């Protein structure tokens, strides 16, 4: 309960996963922020520990804000975080475990040489935060601190030989005009082949780098993939064809912000955490303490095309699967919907493959439709098309007074078919006031002419609907608050409102609660 936001520096240490996150122990609104600390052996069952750090020193007396964790080669973990000093300036600090023999790392201390990074006179001292996980190439450790100069987003680069004295590089790692403030930056390597994750210090000819930033102005994130040149210029260069700005690629096109990745050496994978925030949600929900939560952790890796990342729920989530239902070769004519019964529709894992026998009826795509979210609002789940809309009606009441549709719509583009994935919360609740009910959407980079098939996996957890289109190419998280479609009164349907008949192969599971839910 109470306010939760940014996942700070998740890490794996001596067989235990640690998650730090921003938390208000005193209420369900932002403020009184400490670094909450939880531990797990499987990232499914979590146990809350005492806060790792909280305001106590001059360099953080007005707040302990977001940051990261780094595990040094000597197997010594370090926390970087932003402190708010008496002048309300944002300064970068570090903390270390008090006792490395404690397997849970319960207590952390702040050395006296803090702060270790302070903005100089050329920089914005009140917009300078969220230090990244550090990486080492050659003789220098490096980290990034997010900032801005007027409306230019900046990722400042700092270097250190001994990890305590840090010097600002001559040039930022990267900067972009007209984005507004960068925050919660993340910089990490990905392998050009396979789905194996890489340690943050990995570098070489078979490696690309990802720079993700959260944008304070839009409350969305975006990422690019490019090349990192550490020795000559210490610069990141965005790859050809990537949009570097507000319209760039996103980890998630829904309610997902302030994300952070970490390398999991136990399974050689990179894990993505994100905060599914609740800005503008129903006020009574906020008062009950439902003010944000961490999304299900995802494995993330480079798509074989090199044009984007792929994401998928960690395999450990499947340990919660229970009752299983399969519907094979279900034909859905225009206007039809079929209920998926015998599972807990309010808490479920659903995996569907849709087969499209003919694409000739796909609507023409207007090149001016560059904003997927606007297009989803224009052509919702009830607006008949040629190929689609087809998909799921999640958290639906029996008579469909409430439902949250997650669906595809296919268009005929200039060179290939254009696929849109939507998660529309407009009909999710009968509440009339105080509820944020947007249409979220993203385009899906698939070639339907090869397979005439597309997949959708959706995880449903009462107020959260997380969807993964086309094997994790496009992901959308929605927060919804039905009044009728709750607990046993929630239903799940597969639907088709396009004129072209669609065939669906459905596998769905009831999902159990973890044994430990951060208690």
Automatic annotation (TrEMBL):
It comes from the Eukaryota. GO terms for biological process: carbohydrate metabolic process. Coiled coil: none annotated. Residues 316-510 form the Glycosyl hydrolase family 32 C-terminal domain. Residues 2-313 form the Glycosyl hydrolase family 32 N-terminal domain. Keywords: Glycosidase, Hydrolase. Gene3D superfamilies: Exo-inulinase, domain 1 (2.60.120.560), Glycosyl hydrolase domain, family 43 (2.115.10.20). GO terms for molecular function: hydrolase activity, hydrolyzing O-glycosyl compounds. Belongs to the glycosyl hydrolase 32 family. This is Beta-fructofuranosidase, insoluble isoenzyme 1 isoform X2. It comes from Gossypium hirsutum (Upland cotton). The gene is LOC107928122.
């Amino acid at each position: 309960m109470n306010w939760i936001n940014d996942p700070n520096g998740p890490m794996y240490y001596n067989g235990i996963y640690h998650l730090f996150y921003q938390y208000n122990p005193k209420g369900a609104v932002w403020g009184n922020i400490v670094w909450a600390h939880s531990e797990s052996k499987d990232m499914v069952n979590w146990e809350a520990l005492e806060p790792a750090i909280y305001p106590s020193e001059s360099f953080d007396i007005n707040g302990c804000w977001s940051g990261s964790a780094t595990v040094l080669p000597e197997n010594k973990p370090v926390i970087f975080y932003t402190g708010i000093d008496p002048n309300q300036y944002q300064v970068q600090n570090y903390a270390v475990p008090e006792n490395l023999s404690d397997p849970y790392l319960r207590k952390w201390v702040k050395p006296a040489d803090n702060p270790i990074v302070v903005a100089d006179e050329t920089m914005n001292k009140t917009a300078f935060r969220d230090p990244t996980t550090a990486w080492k190439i050659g003789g220098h450790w490096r980290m990034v601190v997010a900032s801005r100069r007027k409306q230019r987003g900046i990722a400042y680069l700092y270097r250190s030989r001994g990890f305590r004295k840090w010097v600002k590089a001559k040039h930022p790692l990267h900067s972009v005009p007209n984005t507004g403030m960068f925050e919660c930056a993340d910089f990490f390597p990905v392998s050009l082949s396979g789905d194996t994750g890489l340690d943050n210090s990995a570098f070489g000819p078979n490696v690309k780098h990802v720079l993700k930033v959260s944008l304070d102005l839009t409350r969305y994130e975006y990422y690019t993939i490019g090349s990192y040149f550490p020795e000559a210029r210490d610069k990141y260069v965005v790859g050809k064809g990537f949009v570097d700005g507000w319209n760039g690629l996103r980890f998630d096109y829904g309610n997902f912000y302030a994300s952070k990745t970490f390398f999991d050496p136990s399974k050689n994978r990179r894990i993505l955490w994100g905060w599914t925030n609740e800005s503008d949600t129903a006020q009574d929900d906020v008062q009950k303490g439902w003010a944000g939560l961490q999304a299900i952790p995802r494995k993330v890796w480079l798509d074989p095309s090199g044009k984007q990342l792929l994401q998928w729920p960690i395999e450990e989530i499947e340990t919660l699967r229970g009752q299983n239902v399969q519907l094979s070769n279900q034909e859905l004519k225009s206007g039809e919907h079929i209920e998926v019964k015998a599972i807990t529709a309010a808490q479920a894992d659903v995996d569907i493959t849709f087969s499209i026998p003919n694409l000739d009826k796909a609507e023409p795509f207007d090149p001016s439709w560059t904003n997927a979210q606007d297009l989803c609002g224009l052509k919702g789940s009830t607006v008949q098309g040629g190929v689609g809309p087809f998909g799921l009606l999640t958290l639906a009441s029996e008579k469909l007074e409430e439902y949250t549709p997650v669906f595809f719509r296919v268009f005929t583009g200039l060179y290939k078919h254009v696929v849109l994935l939507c998660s529309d919360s407009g009909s999710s609740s009968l509440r009339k006031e105080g509820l944020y009910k947007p249409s979220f959407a993203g385009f899906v980079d698939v070639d339907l002419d090869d397979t005439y098939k597309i997949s959708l996996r959706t995880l449903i957890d009462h107020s959260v609907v997380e969807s993964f289109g086309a094997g994790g190419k496009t992901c959308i998280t929605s927060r919804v608050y039905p009044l009728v479609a709750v607990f046993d009164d929630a239903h799940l349907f597969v639907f088709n409102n396009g004129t072209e008949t669609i065939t669906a192969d459905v596998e769905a599971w009831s999902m159990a609660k973890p044994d430990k839910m951060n208690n």
